[in-house]
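hey m, so remember when u said the tokens were messed up on ur end? i reran from scratch. heres the input so u can diff it against urs
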Amino acid sequence: MKPIPSSRIQTPDSHRFPWYVRLFLANQRRRYGQELEPARLWARTPKVFATLSLLYGALDRRRSPIEPALRSLLTVRVSQINWCAFCVDINSATGMKRGVSAEQFAALENFESSTLFDERQKAALAYAEAMTRTDAGVDDALMARLKARFDDDAVIELTAIIAFQNMSSKFNAALDVAPQGFCRAPEK
């Protein structure tokens, strides 16, 4: 198992998590080859961690009205804006497994002018930026653009995904959680 990178708050290896958290962390070791530092931090407050895990599972479910690749594009863009290197790392790796190209991730900052994104993706990304940037906000024109491509239930789900990623990336950025090397650039 790779060592977990440090953050501003350390969770000692000797920390004793409740049984249900230990099961979750064991699943991470199986899935990622290591425990995720944010999980170890959140898990220091087990009831909050359990609730957070259930919320994430509900938002990242197979039957979501928001397709997996778009969910990944949104989480990476929100993470870029919030300066969360860990989130960009893990969400980019997940996105590549979901069919998002490295070129799309590289073009995210200029998605509006890129031909790599369709109008549905551009509307969702514009919404993510408006929700995330404190100087922007969501206006009626943006909501109309969004509703032309998503039904009301999908807009609610988009809002929840973006809000969750804002919470997650701001938590990790404030605690300076380092990337764990999930998304590596291809060798040239």
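this time it looks ok to me. The CA atoms of residues 72 and 95 lie 5 Å apart. if urs says something different then somethings off w ur setup not the seq
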